[in-house]
Amino acid sequence: MSASLERQVVEVEGRRLTLTHLDRVLFPATGHTKAQVLRYYATVAPAMLPHTAGRPASFVRAPEGPGGQSWFAKNPPSGVPSWVRVVPVEHHEGVTGQVVVDRAADLVAMANLGAYEVHVPQWTAAAGPEAHDRLVLDLDPGEGADLVVCCRIAQRLRQLLDADGLTAHPVVSGGKGLHLYAPLRPAPGRAVADYAHRLAGRMRAEHPGLVVVSMTRSQRRGKVLIDWSQNASAKTTAAPYTVRLRDRPAVAAPVTWDEVAACADAGELTFTPEEVLDRVAAHGDLLAPLAGTRSRGRLP
């Protein structure tokens, strides 16, 4: 995929794709083009796909990059190849078809259509929303707080989860915050959300000057919101390894607990797509245990 070409026909996993607007600069601050983003997804796919496969995906679409029009989309966009799997998903507003990103070709095809940011639920289409197989906590700093504060809170949450028999894995969100995942033996979404809510409440009780569980922005200044609600069956979370549509192309990237403990500046845990590819090449998928079955804990 050459950045010097406006249009190119490629083959990904035996699937023919016509890639367009390859010269389009999506991130003016860094000069990253659409071709570079497509190349990133094609390369990172082996690490990313275990965390998206089988899950009905939603996308933030922004064909011209974060500086243009963007919207959150559940329905497949026009032009999706017929070989991309689409599954029916029941929502409050009715049943919609949603793409499942199972293969590198799916990932590249969606990004080619401007669906650059991938979001998935904590359950698979095959098992359904009553069988969540992972828990997620989204640590989102308010004004006056930052990723460093999130890291300190995450370390305590790790201890609480461990005491309950659950293993936490950190992923920087690609924005200002941090996601914590824990693999689960399948459990109903309501039970997972209730547990996550109680856990967030315990943290707020321990650190009332630092933690909130309310979305109200006026309460969040200088504090970190522990968003437990992304465990609801109707909610999704930015998928590990997805590019985030910010001014600069940061990535939702797995990190180690040593990196979390050592973090003294948010920039230390902010990664470009190229840096993430280097990390994967050096260390593999740091989040691999999340997609496995051995480390799944039983919900307390």
From TrEMBL:
The keyword Nucleotide-binding does not apply. Signal peptide: none annotated. Residues 33-286 form the DNA ligase D polymerase domain. The keyword Ligase applies. It is an enzyme of class 6 (ligase). InterPro entries: LigD_pol_dom (IPR014145), NHEJ_LigD (IPR052171). GO terms for molecular function: DNA ligase (ATP) activity. Keywords: Ligase. Its EC number is 6.5.1.1. NCBIfam families: ligD_pol. This is Non-homologous end-joining DNA ligase. It comes from Streptomyces gamaensis.
